[in-house]
Amino acid sequence: IYPSKIGSDIDPIADKALTVPVLIGGVLSGEISSVIAGGLVATEVITSGVTIAAKLQDKDPEVSNAGKLGMISRVMTIGTNLLLSSVPYEGHAALHNTLEATTNVGFAASMGLGMYSAYTLYKENFKN
Questions:
Q1: Which of 6, 41, 80, 113 gets the most CB atoms within 10 Å of its CB?
Q2: The pTM is what?
Q3: Is 34 helix (H, G, I), strand (E, B) or coil?
C-alpha cells in the first residue's frame, strides 16, 4: 500500500463517518452499551484533537501502527457489541460469552491503543 496525501487526509474522516453514526444508532436502539460508546467516542475525540492541533501548527502528524490497530479494534468492538445484542444467552451461551469476551477485549485494546496513539502524536508533534 502506497499512501497518498489525499488518502491520509481523508481516511480519518472516513473512519469517523463509519463509526459515529453506527455508535449513535446503536446507543439509541439500546444495542450498544453507552459505556462502550462513550469510551470509543472519547478515544476518537482525544486522538482527533491532538491531530487537529498538530495540523493547526503546520505539522504533518502521521498515523502510527498503534493508531491503525486502535481503529481496527474500535470497529471490531462495535461489530461484536452489535452481534452480542442479537444473540440471546439462552440456548447460545457459548456464542454469547465469546461475543461478550471479544467485545471486552476489543474495547480494552481500543482504549489502550487510542491513548498510546494520542500520546505518541503529542510527543512527536509538541515535545521538543
A1: 113
A2: 0.81
A3: helix
